[in-house]
Amino acid sequence: MNQTREPNILPRSSHTISRRDIDPEALKVLYRLARNGHKAYLVGGAVRDLLLGKRPKDFDVATDARPGQIKKLFANCFLIGRRFRLAHIHFRGGKIIEVATFRKDPDPSEEIQTDPHNTFGSPVEDAFRRDITINGLFYDINSFSIIDYVGGLGDISRRRVCIIGEPSARYAEDPVRMWRVLRYAASNGFSIEERTAGAIAGNLHLLASCSGSRMYEEFNKDLYSGSSAEIFSLLMRHSLFSVLFGNVGRVLERQVEVNDELSRLLAVHDRLVLSGNTPSPSVSYSLLLWPWARIVMRDKGQPDSDKMKLLADELAASGMSMIIPKGIRASAVHVLEILDRMMQALETGRMRWSLLKKASYKDAVFVFSLVTQGRLTQGEDAFRAAYTAQHPDKTDKANPRKRRRRRRFRKRAPGAGHQAAGQEASRIP
Ligand code: ATP
Ligand code: MG
Fold this sequence. Notes:
By secondary structure, this protein is α+β, with helices and mostly antiparallel strands. The chain is 52% helix and 9% strand. It has helices at residues 24-35, 45-51, 67-73, 123-128, 152-158, 167-173, 176-188, 194-198, 200-203, 212-223, 228-237, 240-254, 256-274, 281-300, 307-316, 326-348, 361-373, 382-390, 400-412, 417-427; strands at 8-10, 40-43, 60-63, 77-80, 86-90, 96-101, 137-140, 145-148, 160-161, 191-192. Adenosine-5'-triphosphate is lined by residues 44-45, 57-58, 60, 130-131, 135-136, 174, 176-177, 180.
C-alpha cells in the first residue's frame, strides 16, 4: 500500500456517523483539541462500529498534539505508558477517554527506540501502523468527514477484513494481529481477504513467542465479548487453540464430540454475558475446560484416582502458551473435579455429601446448572434439586441439617445411636 497517497475523504453528507451517536465526553475532548488548533480524530473501533450501526465499546481519540500539550489542556488528564505516552482523560463515573498522539510503526533498522519522539508520526503514518483496514479510519471533528488512507471504507462495504500492508511482515511484527483478523471477521460476520487469510497458517507458530499474559488478556476480550462462540469457532478452525492451549487446545479443536459440546457451552456463556450476568473467571474457565476435562477424567482417571491431580498434571504438561493465572487455574480444577463427582452421583445415586463443604462447591453448582440446563438457576442449588428428582429415595442424605442433628444426638447418648438413627430415618418422607 502506498503511504503517500491522498486519502479518500467522505463528507458528512455521504456517511451515517452522527455526533448524536458519539459519547458526549469524547466529543468534549475532540472539540477542545480542535479549538486549540490541533487535529482531532475519532479513531479505531469506534469509527468502524458506528459505520456498522453498532454501539462502540470505547471512543479513542488521535491527535497531533503531543502528550505534554494534551495534559495542559485537560486538568483531568493522566499520562500513562513508558515508551509511548498516552493521555487518559478521566470523567465522572470512571469513564476514561484515551487520547494518543499520531504515531508511526517503529523503524526496524533502529533496534532500540531510545527517543520516544521518534515514534510520533503523521496522520497517514498513524493509519498505516494500524492492524486491519476497517480499524484504520478517522472521523475528523473539524469537518465531520471520514478520512480513509487504507481502504477501510471499501472493505466495510465489501464486508471483509483485510490486513494493512504485507500480511507476513505485519504478522511477524506482531503475531497477535492474526488473532485480531479472525476476531473482527467472526464478530462482524465478515469474510477475510485472501492474502490476509492465506498468510495465517505459515505464521501461526510466531504467536507462541508472544507474552503468555498478553494472550490471556486477549483471550478474555473474546471470552467476555458476548460473541465467543463465533470467535472461538473461527480461532479453532485456524488452529489457534492448539497454540494457546497446547494439547488441551488440540482436543478441543479436533475431537468432534468435545468441539460440539464446547460450542454449546460457549453459546450459553454468551447469553449470560449479554444479559449482564458476566460469570467470574473461575466459572468461565471451568465451563470452557469442561468438555476436555470430562474426556480426560473418563479416559485416564481410575475410579478412586485423584482427579484433581490428574487435571492439574495434564494442564501443566499441555504445552499451553497462554498463561492462565495460578489462582484461576487452581479453582477451575477444583470446580471441574466437583462437577465430575456431581455427574457421577446423578448417574449412580451415590453421593459423598462432604462435597458441599468444599470452597468451590458454589461455583460448581453454577457451572452444573449451565452445563445441564443451559441457564442459571436462581436461588436454589441446581445440583441438589436434580439429584433429589433423580434419586428420591436418597433425599434424606441430601439434607445436611438432618445429618448434623443425628450426629449430635449420637454423641450425647452413646449406645442409643441405632435407635436415634432409626427414628431420624423414619421421620424422613
Ligand atoms: P474493540 O471494539 O474490540 O475494542 P478496537 O478496534 O477498538 O475494537 P482495540 O484493541 O481497542 O480495538 O484497539 C484500538 C485500535 O488500535 C484498533 O482499532 C487498531 O486501529 C489499533 N490496534 C490495536 N491493536 C493493534 C495491533 N496489534 N496492531 C496494529 N494496530 C492495532
Ligand atoms: Mg477498543
